[in-house]
């Protein structure tokens, strides 16, 4: 049976072709039925023959009448057979018309399906791909070439945007270093006024904050470009343990209860060790900085099939999932404006998402039903190479 999806071009083409074939078949059947009919005529006497006697004439007329009745019955039966045969042929023709129409529609729309499938696999991470449809110059090839031109313009625009962030961050590093050096010189003078020292301390705090912001933009641009350094095997559990150990002071200051399930050697992946370390550090920093005093943090790493999963959960108030979904975008935070937050510029989780995507993984953010946030990161599992034995 032909399966059709409503509201598609394929369905409209199928119905159009089917109706055309069906009407053509109906016309042929009607003509065949009309030309197959006949009329019963009286039998005329043969010239040159003498009419029979009176008794014979009555008998002959009776025989003629009987033959005419039999011929009429044969014609009626033939007409009924033709009608039934035509109806059966019409049903078969309707089914064949739909099948033929569906086959022709699929044939006509096949290039469009190929273009659709290829376009679906192109995203912001692989804008360098092209459809490159070959064949005669027709409407379908014009459409494919137009899409290729659009992809080329998008690739150029994305590259310019990412390159601008990286270049601007690099260029701003020099004036920041100059400002920091000038502040240090001003404070180091023996006769520096107290107001100057206090102002220098406040400015140095803002300069450090801007430096962290630029560093985050550089890492984000590098991850979005897919510019990875030397690839190496990395144990995610070891990165998490190191990140927690480096933040012992902050964890103690907030009296956080940290529990971890970090089996070593189970969750190994391969990639840029520096970027993967930054990924883990940002997730841990987010869990510590945006936690309530006396709260808790749960960290676990595991292997799930061909993926390594890192899950970090924190307690707190109930969050709106719509707000949580925005956290993977740059400069987005919960419960704070775009500027003026003492906990950062809102780049942490966007950097995590970009680094995970650059390594073939993904970031998943979920608001916990009873309050708090669940951050889950999946990375491709790559087993450690087996060491050769002597």
Notable characteristics:
single chain; 390 residues; alpha+beta; Helix Hairpins; Heat Shock Protein 90; five-stranded mixed β-sheet; two-stranded antiparallel sheet; 9 helices; 7 strands; elongated
What does it look like?
The chain is an alpha+beta fold. It has 3 domains: 96 residues; 76 residues, Signal transduction histidine kinase, dimerisation/phosphotransfer (DHp) domain (Helix Hairpins, Orthogonal Bundle), CATH 1.10.287; 150 residues, Heat Shock Protein 90, CATH 3.30.565. It contains 9 helices and 7 strands; from the N terminus they run ααααβααββαββααββ. The chain is elongated and about 160 Å long. About 2% of the residues have low confidence.
Q: Low-confidence segments, ≥5 residues, pLDDT <50?
A: 38-44
Classified in CATH, the superfamily of the largest domain is Histidine kinase-like ATPase, C-terminal domain
Rg calculated over all Cα atoms: 42 Å
Largest sheet: 5 strands, mixed
Given the helix and strand composition, which structural class is it? alpha+beta
Map the helices and strands.
Blueprint: H1 9-36, H2 54-120, H3 139-188, H4 194-225, E1 231-235, H5 236-246, H6 248-253, E2 257-261, E3 268-272, H7 273-289, E4 296-304, E5 307-314, H8 321-325, H9 348-358, E6 362-367, E7 373-380
Parallel strand pairs: 2-4
Antiparallel strand pairs: 1-3, 4-5, 5-7, 6-7
């Amino acid at each position: 049976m032909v399966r059709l999806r409503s509201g598609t071009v394929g369905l409209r083409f199928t119905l159009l072709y089917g109706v055309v074939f069906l009407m053509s078949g109906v016309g042929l059947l009607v003509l065949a039925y009309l030309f197959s009919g006949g009329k019963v005529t009286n039998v005329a006497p043969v010239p040159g023959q003498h009419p029979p006697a009176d008794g014979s004439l009555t008998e002959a007329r009776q025989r003629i009448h009987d033959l005419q009745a039999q011929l009429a019955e044969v014609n009626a039966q033939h007409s009924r057979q033709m009608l039934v045969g035509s109806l059966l042929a019409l049903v078969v023709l309707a089914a064949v018309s739909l099948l033929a129409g569906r086959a022709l529609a699929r044939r006509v729309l096949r290039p469009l399906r190929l273009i659709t499938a290829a376009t679906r696999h192109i995203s912001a991470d692989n804008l360098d791909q092209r459809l490159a449809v070959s064949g005669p110059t027709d409407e379908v090839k014009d459409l494919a070439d137009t899409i290729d031109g659009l992809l080329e313009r998008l690739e150029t625009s994305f590259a310019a945007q990412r390159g601008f962030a990286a270049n601007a961050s690099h260029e701003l590093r020099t004036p920041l270093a100059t400002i920091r050096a000038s502040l240090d010189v001003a404070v180091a003078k023996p006769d520096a006024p107290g107001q100057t020292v206090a102002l220098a301390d406040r400015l140095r705090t803002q300069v450090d904050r801007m430096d962290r912001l630029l560093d985050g933009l550089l890492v984000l641009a590098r991850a979005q470009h897919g510019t990875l350094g030397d690839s190496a095997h990395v144990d995610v559990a070891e990165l998490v343990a190191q990140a927690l150990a480096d933040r012992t002071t902050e964890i103690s200051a907030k009296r956080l209860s940290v529990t971890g399930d970090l089996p070593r050697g189970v969750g190994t992946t391969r990639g840029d060790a520096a970027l993967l370390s930054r990924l883990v550090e940002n997730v841990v920093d987010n869990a510590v900085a945006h936690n309530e005093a006396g709260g808790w943090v749960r960290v676990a790493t595991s292997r799930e099939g061909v993926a390594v999963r890192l899950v970090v959960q924190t307690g707190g108030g109930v969050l709106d999932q719509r707000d949580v979904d925005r956290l993977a975008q740059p400069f987005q935070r919960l419960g704070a404006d775009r500027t003026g937050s003492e906990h950062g510029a809102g780049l942490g989780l966007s950097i995590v998402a970009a680094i995970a995507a650059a390594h073939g993984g993904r970031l998943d953010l979920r608001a916990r039903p009873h309050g708090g946030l669940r951050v889950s990161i999946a990375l491709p599992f790559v087993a450690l190479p087996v060491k050769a034995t002597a």
